[in-house]
Amino acid sequence: MDLRPTTHDLRPKLALVLFVAIALLSVTPGLFRVALADHATVQRTFTAYPDRPWYPEFPAFLEEVHAHTQRGDTIALVVPAMLWDNNYSYAYYRASYYLTGREVLPLVRRDDSPIPENFARAKYVATWRRGVKDATRHVVWAGRGGLLLGH
Q: Domain containing 18: what range?
């Protein structure tokens, strides 16, 4: 009688060993770093990440604009980059996020052409790191690198 294991008997064990090896080799060491990291630091990093070009000034500015306006107000946004694909779209969508309940009006289209009617229609103009001259508006609030102008 032959007591040696046959190939048929070794297949399930070999399959288990290969499965465990593949599973272990597919684990990325970065996952362990994130899981074991200081969660406060990770939170700060991921909170700042969307605003990395203008963090922390732009989010702080938008929070102040939110605090000085009311639900339903229309706000036009002026930032240093007034070209859609050169950070204006980022600023516009971030402002829409921070200014929940308000209507953020873009001042340029996707093709970079201006939308002057939105400037005229806006109750407020939030201008950050860029000057705006408009004799019909007064400063409602100033700080965090910008101004909030209103009628």
A: 7-48
